Amino acid sequence: MAAAHNHLRGPAQLVLTASVARRYYLDGRSKVEIAEEFSLSRFKVARLLDDARSSGRTLVRFRGGTFEMKHLVRWLAALDPSVVQALPQATDSQITTFLTVVVQRQLLLEQADSAGITLSADDWRQLRAQHDSAISILSTVLNLTPQMLHDSAATPEARRDLAMAHVQDYFERLVKGRARFYPVPPFLGETLRAQAEWRVEQAGIQRALEHAKELRAAVDSSQAPGVPRMTPPPPTGRVDTTPRRRLQ
Predict the structure, then answer these.
(1) How far does CA 154 lie from the centroid of its chain?
(2) What range does the domain containing 185 cover?
(3) Which terminus of the chain has fewer Cβ atoms in its 10 Å neighbourhood, N or C?
(4) How many C-beta atoms surround the C-beta of residue 77 within 10 A?
């Protein structure tokens, strides 16, 4: 599989680049996770992300405009995950057809916007319900609410520190298997990355790697000869992490 990816050219290579960028920038996946998902080396993932950063690359030209890499990355966040996962293995002909359909939809949306066509009241209610549901799930997994921030912290700095502590606690529980993983919804992730201050902390990455090594050692020791295997309890519920379609 890795060898096949290394020999991709043309549209297939561009779609792979966009898919990797979507996982990294929109889904918050690590380079290690992306490398495992697409059967790539971490070096290859880093190179693809570098390519995606020059997102002005033109994928399709049409009368009056172009369809660029940044447009494709945004569309990938709105499509069915099964479609996105199949794209890196698609033929050039299939990808050309896919891009044609996406560009047509992009043009239709732009024309509708220019004509002043807006969403109906029912559409807005559905979008608000999906938004509120996603925020509610995040609030639950982080054990953090606006009221808690208001009551427990008097200054913006104190509220930030409290929120960071809850996020840190969530990751601690996550790596120790005491919490379920819930990805930040793409619409929220894009907004945070565009408007909030953020950075990658190498010390945090190192702590995560150390936790992973500890967990791997614990699993290996539990599977040693003579040690009874632990059977995990059945799940008590399932968080709905199905990505929702959104208008671009």
Answers:
(1) 33
(2) 123-198
(3) N
(4) 20
Same domain for 149 and 86, yes or no, is no
192: in domain: yes
Residue 157 falls within a domain, yes or no?
yes
The residue to which tokens 């050039």 are assigned: 92
- C-beta of residue 12 within 8 angstroms of C-beta of residue 72: no
Tokens of 115: 């004509």
At 18-38, the pLDDT tens digits run: 788 777 765 667 888 888 888
Is 40 in the same domain as 75?
yes
Token pair in block for residue 10: 């043309």
3-class secondary-structure state, position 58? strand
Count of domains forming the chain: 2
Burial of 13 (0-12, 13-18, 19+ CB in 10 A): middle
104 and 130 inside one domain: no
pLDDT tens per residue, range 150-193: 888 889 899 989 998 998 899 888 877 888 888 777 778 778 87
